[in-house]
Amino acid sequence: MIAVSENEGVVTITLDGKFVFSEHREFRDTYKDKPPKTRYVLDFRRVTYMDSAALGMLLLLNEHNKSGGTDLIKIVNCTPQVAKVFEIANFSQLFTIA
Length: 98
Prior knowledge:
The protein is α/β, with parallel strands linked by helices. It is built from three helices and five strands, in the order ββαβαβαβ. It has a single domain (about 1-95), classed as STAS domain (Transcription Regulator spoIIAA, 2-Layer Sandwich), CATH 3.30.750.
């Protein structure tokens, strides 16, 4: 399940459960109509598992956002296992991970 809210120009996307390929369409729908350089906060507090497809989905979000830099897309509240995946994939070069 994916929940979206917007406040003062920041789009918050809250993910729940497994973030896997089957979530692709729903995840894409959260940003497809947003303009480039939109600020996003991705809340991973309730993500229990993610696969390589999820990493690809995040890269597609970054590409859609015109690779605006690490300050435009912030990933927050990662569990230790999800944080480890981001570390191994070197995603801190593309996103702010807090």
